[in-house]
Amino acid sequence: MPAPTKGQLGSAVDGFFQGVGLEGENASDLADVVAEAIATALDMFVQTAMVEPGIAGAVDPITTSGATTAPGRLSTTLQAAQLEPIVSGLLSGAGIQGDAAEGLGKAIAGLIAYGIDQFTQKVQVAPGIAVAGAVTAAPGVLM
Q1: Is the pLDDT of residue 138 over 90?
Q2: Whether 59 and 26 share a structural domain
């Protein structure tokens, strides 16, 4: 499943910014940066996310068919440090510079990485994935 794009997120981020009264010369530029940073981070997450090994299953010893019987866990290697230079570049490219720009970039990157980490810690892969030939033979469903 592909991650949402900046174009798909942009109007939502801009709406949230307007909804809380965030105004100023660079408000729309900042909304674009946040939308692109989220889209980039989600794309990186989709590329690095994996189901951890070790999901319990019940398998017939003769046919080696069955299903997983326990939930699985997601994990990712995505870290805020990977996002910081991307967000800093986006801020700079949008002309958002100054004393607080570096901290703003770190805060945006850290918040996005934290959200993705919280997602991977809370969501599980539902049991019931088909097993054939002693390996999973169907996609899992997140729960």
Answers
A1: no
A2: no
Sheet of 124-125: strand order equals 50-51, 72-75, 124-125
**67 Cβ neighbours under 8 A, 6+ residues apart:** 57, 58, 127, 128, 129, 130, 131
In a domain, 1, yes or no: no
Residue-range definition of the domain harbouring residue 54:
50-71+126-143
pLDDT digits (tens, 9 = 90+) for 96-114: 999 999 999 999 999 999 9
Residues in the chain: 143
Report how far Cα 131 is from the mean position of its chain's Cα atoms: 28
Do residues 33 and 86 share a domain? Answer: yes
- pTM score, whole prediction: 0.86
pLDDT tens per residue across span 45-86 = 999 999 898 899 999 999 999 999 999 999 999 999 999 999
Report phi then psi at 51, rounded to 5. -85, 130
Which residues, listed in sequence order, are joined to residue 50 by a DSSP beta bridge?
Answer: 75
Q: How far apart are CA 32 and CA 27, in angstroms?
A: 9
Backbone angles phi, psi at 132, to 5 degrees: -140, 130
